[in-house]
Amino acid sequence: MATSQQRHYSAPCPGCGAPVEFLSAQSSYAVCGYCHSTVVRRGEVLARVGKMAELFEDHSPLQLMASGKWEGTAFTLIGRMQFRGEEGGWTEWNAWLDDGRRATLGEDNGAYVFTQPLQPPPADLPAPEQLGLGARLTLAGQRWSVAAHLQAHLAAAEGELPRLPPPGQQFLVVELRSDDGQVLSIDYGGTTPRLEIGRSVQLAELQLKGLKDASLKQEQGRHFDCPHCGAPVQVQLQSTKSITCGSCHSLIDLSGGIGAELLSATQQAGAAPLIALGSIGQFEGVPWQVVGYQRRLGQEPDDDEQFGWDEYLLYNQQKGFIFLVDASDGWSLVRPATGAPKLGALGAAASYLGMSYVRTSGYRAETAYVAGEFYWPVERGQQTDNVDYAATQGKGILSREKSDKEITWSYGSRLASATVAQAFGREAEADKFKRDEVGPFVASGGSGCGLTVLILIVFIMVVIMLSTCTDGSSSSGSYNRSSGGSFGGYSSGGSHK
Q1: pLDDT band for position 266 (50/70/90)?
Q2: Count of Cβ atoms closer than 10 Å to residue 372 Cβ
Q3: SS3 for 431?
Q4: Is residue 442 packed enough to be buried (19+ CB in 10 Å), middle (13-18) or exposed (0-12)?
Q5: pLDDT of residue 446
Q6: Is 203 helix (H, G, I), strand (E, B) or coil?
Q7: Distance between CA 148 and CA 119 in Å, rounded?
Q8: In this structure, are residues 178 and 339 in contact, taking their beta carbons and an 8 Å threshold?
Q9: Of 99, 383, 375, which is closest to residue 254 (Cα–Cα)?
Q10: Which of the chain's ends, N or C, has fewer CB atoms near its CB within 10 Å?
């Protein structure tokens, strides 16, 4: 555990008498670990202000008193708040740094963001109604894009807390992203808005110690009867917000919890996916389990014909979720983007994390069939406006999805079909994975295409030049929900033609 020169404070809980300890001088509230009384510290006296609801099991590897390092400074996790929003929940861990500062480790769907209070807060902070989805603005000397508006409430908490929103009371959070991957969260729940700024992290990067022992985890899932046919349905992941019945293929909404009224929508059984649910594939040096599958359809403007592609939702406990996309022009592995790519003139070009992209297509996408579990509420017939980009060098891809509530960016790279077959140990069936694979977006030779390539290169150069004169007024962003909770929003992560 991190050490500090600060004086620790302990006093008996006014509810049950058990000791309640404060490690950080910045902690004003705490939740008694014995009787769940919520207490506030007033000088040397603790006053009981209510009782906190039980925490819901989120199968997180984190726990109180786990410690690590952030940019060379040791920290300890001393408190946890669990929030519920319109589309699901996330957790904020109160981190006490060894030098006396406070930070937040946001956790949602296996993704993490480390943030700290923005000091001093901007004097010219706009009202939330002035921060429309996709708007661009400058705050604290940084250019941002508005990614989402979210109504949320505190559901449960434990340990030491720097603040305590009234449980169950709704508050507004506005999320902003920068083109270098930073996250800015504005909490409008108090009399004075609270701002936190940070970036995404991997748990390994934080050198964490004291994590939960995986052998002690009881991930036996939850059970309920299908509201349509009555067959038993088992939920494996705590983060699941949608699931399909294995018997009647109904799509079931779990966003209100299993104890709430379950809503189901019938759908005809689709063709069996090439990669079965539950399969394990090796990507990026770690195993990923296939937990969800979507069949999606797209249609370009002024085109009567639709095209289709498949998306597999993959899960790893330490790394969260990624998408394996199977399209007619090849396979790709993508993940939700933390930041907001910078757009050029008319959105014809984009740049993100040092890579340049050119727009390849724009279309309306629709979810046609769903199977498995998803961390966002999936509906058959859900529609988004999609734009795809290809890297000007290499195999990189970038994609933007816009719904009524959010803008989600995803990025990744194309994969060779043989790589996908090998990842799932199906080399003997390599022919089933073959696609009309498209190579990197590069200027190729040939007597018939020289002029076309030259025109395209000139066009890209003009777009890049124009992009330096505009900050990209087109919408851009990604959904992160309160001090860095979620990285990807609730749209799909693939959206590739």
Answers
A1: low
A2: 23
A3: helix
A4: exposed
A5: 41
A6: helix
A7: 23
A8: yes
A9: 375
A10: N
Whether residue 113 contacts residue 198, with contact meaning beta carbons closer than 8 Å, is answered with yes
| Cβ-contact 150, 157 below 8 angstroms | no
Residue 191 CB partners (closer than 8 Å, separation 6+): none
Q: Which amino acid is at 189?
A: G
The first and second tokens of residue 493, run together, are 């992560």
pLDDT of residue 479: 26
Query: Residue 146: in which H helix or E strand, if any?
Result: strand 142-161
* Alpha carbon 162 to its chain's center: 24
CB atoms within 10 A of CB 214: 10
- Asked whether the predicted pLDDT for residue 11 surpasses 90, the reply is no
Q: Cα separation of 82 and 124, whole Å?
A: 30
304 forms beta bridges with none
At 60-81, the pLDDT tens digits run: 789 999 999 999 999 999 999 9
Q: Which parts of 43-187 fold into alpha helices (H)?
A: none
Give the tens place of pLDDT for each residue, 33-70: 878 788 887 766 777 877 787 776 666 789 999 999 99
Pair of tokens at residue 445: 């030779």
For residue 454, the model assigns a pLDDT of 39
In this structure, the strands spanning 142-161 and 29-31 are: antiparallel
Task: Give dist(CA 211, CA 60) in Å, integer.
Answer: 9
Which region among 119-128, 451-460, 478-487 has the lowest average model confidence (pLDDT)? 478-487
Tokens of 99: 């030098």
How far is 361 from 359, CA to CA, in rounded Å? 6
pLDDT tens per residue across span 309-360: 999 999 887 788 899 999 999 999 999 888 889 989 889 999 998 899 999 9
Residue with tokens 């727009």: 359
- What confidence category does residue 252 fall into, taking pLDDT thresholds of 50, 70 and 90? confident
Using DSSP, state whether 187 is helix, strand or coil.
strand
Q: How many CB atoms lie within 10 A of CB 393?
A: 12
Amino acid at 324: L
Can you give the length of the chain in residues? 497
How far are the Cα atoms of 3, 280, 290, 425 from residue 430, in angstroms, in the given order? 55, 17, 19, 10
Instruction: Please name the residues in contact with 8: beta carbons below 8 A apart, sequence gap of 6 or more.
Output: 21, 22, 23
Please identify which residue in the block is written with the tokens 């404060």: 22
pLDDT band of 12, cuts 50, 70, 90:
confident
DSSP track, 340-387: -PEE-GGGSEEEETTEEEEEEEEEEEEEEEEEEEESS---TT-EEEEE
Distance (Å, rounded) from C-alpha 39 to C-alpha 385?
Answer: 47
Distance CA 117, CA 137 (A): 19
Q: How many CA atoms lie within 13 A of 276 on its CB side?
A: 5
The answer to whether 469 and 350 are in contact (CB under 8 A) is no
Q: Which residues contact 46 (CB under 8 A, 6 or more apart)?
A: 11, 12, 13, 14, 20, 30, 39, 40
Q: Quick check: 239 and 58 in contact, CB under 8 A?
A: yes
Contact by Cβ (8 Å): 365, 401: yes
